[in-house]
Write a structure and sequence with these properties.
- The chain has about 60 residues and is an all-alpha fold.
- It has one domain (about 10-60).
- Helices cover about 40% and strands about 0% of the residues.
- The chain contains two helices and no strands.
Length: about 60
């Protein structure tokens, strides 16, 4: 897999929350800035972290 195989997860909903996490793609501001200079392995890690953030933010919590 080449570096170009990891496409940006941006969905053009670019708004950072109070923790500097994008509410569209769930990457941090730093991860977004560094994306195009990152190796494929780094991108895969960012995508993994973004998936975890997305799942954590959409989990329904019952009282």
């Amino acid at each position: 897999m080449s570096i170009d195989d990891s496409k940006s997860p941006c969905i053009s909903i670019c708004a950072l929350d109070e923790n500097d996490i994008c509410m569209g793609c769930y990457r941090s501001a730093e991860e977004i800035t560094d994306w195009f200079m990152s190796t494929n392995e780094q991108k895969q890690e960012v995508l993994r972290l973004a998936r975890e953030r997305c799942q954590a933010s959409t989990t329904i919590r019952l009282m």
